[in-house]
Write a structure and sequence with these properties.
Elements: H1 10-19, E1 23-25, H2 32-35, E2 50-52, H3 56-64
Antiparallel strand pairs: 1-2
């Protein structure tokens, strides 16, 4: 599963972005490090994408993606 986002065609990400109403945060975005912070400082994960879902349709699109 590691590095799947790096190998993903950018046009697929763009197509996905156009289907969701919520905000999407990618590693290249300036707010990425702030978004990935968690309460426990021992956890240092680097997700390939954050989807800030605003409705059920966003959740469904994210899960299907």
């Amino acid at each position: 599963m590691k590095n799947q986002m790096k190998n993903l065609d950018p046009s697929l990400i763009e197509a996905f972005t156009s289907t969701v109403r919520g905000k999407i945060v990618l590693p290249k975005d300036t707010q990425y490090n702030e978004t990935r912070k968690v309460y426990n400082g021992m956890i240092n994960k680097h997700p390939g994408m954050f989807v800030m879902c605003v409705d059920v349709a966003d959740v469904m699109a994210s899960v299907n993606f």
